[in-house]
Structure to design on (331 residues):
């Protein structure tokens, strides 16, 4: 018994070797994947509900200006919810009187702000990035883009997914 | 000779690579790349809505007739027409066409692309196309029509795409 104990005590401690090779492999794969999907401009969107963007052959990059997001059930200006959409109609947006809507007021405020800073801006800077669910009908979209046009934003960039 | 012998007799140990600094670098790089990774590649199509303004009466130098093509997306098909201040009504009448929906109730965009290519071949200065969708046409269809109008089958067709609601 005693002999056994003394044998154990005399064993030399060997520090365990970490096997990092497999971890390195994993990290390398991860790094390559992330490098491919690296983007210098990341758009963060706060959207209520799921949105499906249309796919397009467009190759042009977007300008991250004023963002108008139209989901199935809500309308967002930047990160702020502006109106609800019910049965394909924007609540509070009367097609006969677009100037009385909250969207018009907010876009006009944006236009005035942009107007103050026009010295360093080009016409391209006053373009709205329009991100819209592909399932929505033109009836819904039309009143929104008309309102934007009246508020001083006749030029748009339609946000699409790369095909 | 002796030196060579000595070299051969040395036991060859596996060299232990020190991977810890590389691991450290990876641990810094991966969170950074994760933050700036985008999993949806967003692209943009330039368009505009018609606005009231003074008409530009200037004509391009040389005999370059510019047509503006109108694409009406109707519930049952696509209606095409053209307008221009520089062309006769008889010429413009040649570009009136109607493409009904196919069996799978899909819009015949390939046929439209071929037709638009024909217009572009005859009047290469033309660069504007107006899309007028009906209320029930979905956004996805409008985007696909825009793609056809801009890129066509062979060359760039109409880079200026304007979207408009029906008047009246």
């Amino acid at each position: 018994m005693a002999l056994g104990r003394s044998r154990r005590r005399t064993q030399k401690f060997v520090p365990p070797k970490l096997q990092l090779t497999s971890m390195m492999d994993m990290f390398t794969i991860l790094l390559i994947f992330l490098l491919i999907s690296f983007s210098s401009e990341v758009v963060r969107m706060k959207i209520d509900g799921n949105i499906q963007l249309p796919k397009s052959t467009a190759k042009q990059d977007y300008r991250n200006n004023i963002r108008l997001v139209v989901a199935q059930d809500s309308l967002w200006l930047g990160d702020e919810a502006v109106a609800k959409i019910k049965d394909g109609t924007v609540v509070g947006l009367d097609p006969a009187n677009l100037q009385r809507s909250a969207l018009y007021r907010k876009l006009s405020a944006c236009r005035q702000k942009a107007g103050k800073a026009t010295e360093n801006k080009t016409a391209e800077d006053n373009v709205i990035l329009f991100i819209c669910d592909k399932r929505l009908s033109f009836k819904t979209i039309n009143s929104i883009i008309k309102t934007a046009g009246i508020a001083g934003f006749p030029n748009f960039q339609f946000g699409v997914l790369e095909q | 000779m002796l030196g060579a012998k000595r070299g051969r007799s040395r036991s060859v140990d596996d060299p232990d690579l020190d991977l810890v600094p590389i691991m450290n670098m990876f641990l810094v790089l991966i969170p950074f790349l994760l933050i700036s990774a985008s999993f949806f590649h967003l692209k943009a199509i330039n368009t505009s809505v018609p606005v009231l303004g003074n008409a530009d009466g200037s004509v391009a130098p040389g005999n370059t007739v510019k047509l503006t093509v109108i694409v009406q997306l109707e519930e049952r098909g696509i209606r095409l027409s053209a307008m221009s201040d520089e062309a006769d009504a008889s010429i413009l009448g040649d570009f009136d066409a109607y493409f009904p929906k196919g069996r799978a109730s899909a819009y015949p965009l390939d046929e439209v692309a071929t037709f638009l290519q024909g217009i572009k071949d005859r009047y290469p200065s033309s660069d504007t196309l107006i899309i007028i969708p009906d209320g029930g046409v979905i956004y996805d269809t409008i985007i696909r029509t825009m793609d056809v109008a801009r890129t066509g089958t062979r060359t760039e067709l109409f880079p200026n795409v304007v979207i408009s609601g029906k008047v009246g």
Notes: The CA atoms of residues 109 and 145 of chain B lie 7 Å apart. Chain B touches chain A through 44 residues (CB under 8 Å). The longest strand of chain B covers residues 42-48.
